[in-house]
Amino acid sequence: MIIYRDAVSDSKDELLSDSFDLKEVDGVAYEADCAMIEIGAVNVDTGANASAEEAGEDLDDGAQKVNNIIHSFRLQATSFDKASYLSYLKGYMKKVTEHLKKKGASAEEVKDFQTKAQAFAKKIVSNFKDYEFYTGESMDVDGMVVLLNYREDGITPYVTIWKHGVDEMKV
Predict the structure, then answer these.
(1) DSSP the chain
(2) Residue 98 neighbours by CB under 8 Å, 6+ apart
(3) Which residues contact 153 (CB under 8 A, 6 or more apart)?
């Protein structure tokens, strides 16, 4: 299994893994469909007949619905207005560019990333109101912000991370 960790922050938060069906988008991002799952529910069947009991006990089983990726990687919700997100994104792209140069990427590769990232960022900003924003578990403000949106069906959630902003860790 490959775990994708935040490459540009000191926290190295785990953001996603290949156990989810990843799709590369526009050469600069990964998308993975999520699912809403139920956690915390414990169903204990004692074999007793509830209708035969004197008073039925209505217990809160503590179940809650959560997004499987958000929950699994302990991502933390955050918020942006459009201006603050653009400011964050500008700084983040500089960090990713520096990261690519440190890894030995050629000038052509860096330029290709910058061009594709700019086009992808325009897509995000044009649909800004549709996104939810999450940071890694450490809530490092210098790290990647994971984007959550819904497919065209309005039901299926998916997350988006920047491909060049993660390091792959085999486990």
Answers:
(1) -EEEEESSSSS--EEEETTS-EEEETTTEEEEE--EEEES---------GGGSSS--------EEEEHHHHHTT-EEE---HHHHHHHHHHHHHHHHHHHHHTT--HHHHHHHHHHHHHHHHHHHHTGGG-EEEE-TT--TTSPPEEEEE-TTSS-EEEEEEGGGEEEEE-
(2) 8
(3) none
* pTM of the predicted model as reported, rounded to 2 decimal places: 0.84
pLDDT (tens digit, 9 = 90+) per residue, 13-65? 999 999 999 999 999 999 999 998 888 766 666 666 666 555 555 555 677 88
What does the alpha-carbon distance between residue 77 and residue 67 come to, in Å, rounded to a whole number? 12
pLDDT digits (tens, 9 = 90+) for 113-170: 999 999 999 999 999 999 999 999 999 888 999 999 999 998 999 999 999 999 999 9
**Comparing C-alpha atoms, which of 14, 69, 61 is closest to residue 37?**
69
